[in-house]
Amino acid sequence: MEFNKAQNIIGLRVLSDNVIWVWEKDKSVVVIDPSVHEPVIRYIDENNLHLEAILQTHHHSDHIGGTKYLIERWPNVKVIASSKEKTRIPFQNVSVEDGETLNILGEEVKIIEVLGHTSSHIAFFLNGKIPVLFIGDTLFSGGCGRIFEGTYKQMYSSLKKIKSLPKNTLIYCAHEYTKANLLWALTLKPKDQDIKTKLLQVEKKLSINELTIPFLLDEEIKINLFLRAKNLKEFTFLRENKDSWV
Ligand SMILES: [Fe+2]
After folding, report:
1. How many whole angstroms separate alpha carbon 41 and alpha carbon 47?
2. In this model, does residue 145 exceed pLDDT 60?
3. pLDDT for 128
4. How far is the CA of 175 from the centre of ligand 1 (A)?
5. Which of 26, 45, 50, 116 is close enough to 150 for a disulfide, judged by CB 3.0 to 4.6 Å?
6. Per-residue model confidence as pLDDT tens digits over 95-129
7. How far is the CA of 122 from the centre of ligand 1 (A)?
């Protein structure tokens, strides 16, 4: 387990490459996609905090696996998830839809539906002084989520939604995949200086046990081939190429 403190959002690295984000304010915390519960409970207890809400981007077990145990410990916790996932995220008690805004820890949080990885994936956008996006498995640094349930078109339009957010948005995804994604990108664009520079920065961070997340939208647009794709055809080629890359 590792910590990476950026502002008041802390990353707990768990399993092989998952990151659980813990957003902290005035002794209350909100947890995003708790794949497991023990590190979350330990962190909350050690810091004398209270669990206010759990945000679920989608139903995969490495995102909701810890939720039922957190509910046992904090029975009044709000569990916020897509209204389309009442069966696969059955413990949700605040069901949300695309475009809805909620007040969480005193901040306005907008729900943005980003389909493609699953048929109901949502993201949570905080439009504060430094905008923050909890994006789950839709976008990774240097990559994007696999298309399991949605279509290429849906994922391509989800990425366009992300690109339309303020350029200073800090993006928090749920997996530390950055290095592998950049190595893949260099197989297609071996001379790309922006990607090469990013890889060096990422290797440096990893060598001192730091997370490479969050990442800045403005910088990501320069190094992420999926965000750079000019049309659906190019995006589809990239996604298929990445799926077959080992
Ligand atoms: Fe997933």
Report:
1. 10
2. yes
3. 86
4. 9
5. 116
6. 999 999 999 999 999 999 999 999 999 999 999 88
7. 11
- Write out the residue range of the structural domain in which residue 176 sits: 5-243
* Cα dihedral: 121, 4, 246, 156 (round 10): 30
- CA angle in degrees (0–180, nearest 5) for 179-181-182: 65
Query: From the CA of 48, how far away is ligand 1's center (Å)?
Result: 31
Task: Report the alpha-carbon distance of residue 58 to residue 161 in Å, rounded.
Answer: 17
**Ligand 1 centre and the CA of 60: distance in Å?**
5
Q: Which of 53-57, 92-96, 105-109 has the lowest mean pLDDT?
A: 105-109
Q: What's the CATH code of the domain at 30? A: 3.60.15.10
How many angstroms separate the Cα of 110 from the Cα of each of 2, 97, 125, 231?
28, 10, 5, 27
Find out whether 70 and 77 touch, Cβ atoms under 8 Å: yes
181 CA from centroid of ligand 1 (Å): 16
Please state whether the predicted TM-score (pTM) of the whole model is above 0.90: yes
Write the pLDDT tens digit of every residue in 16-46: 999 999 999 999 999 999 999 999 999 999 9
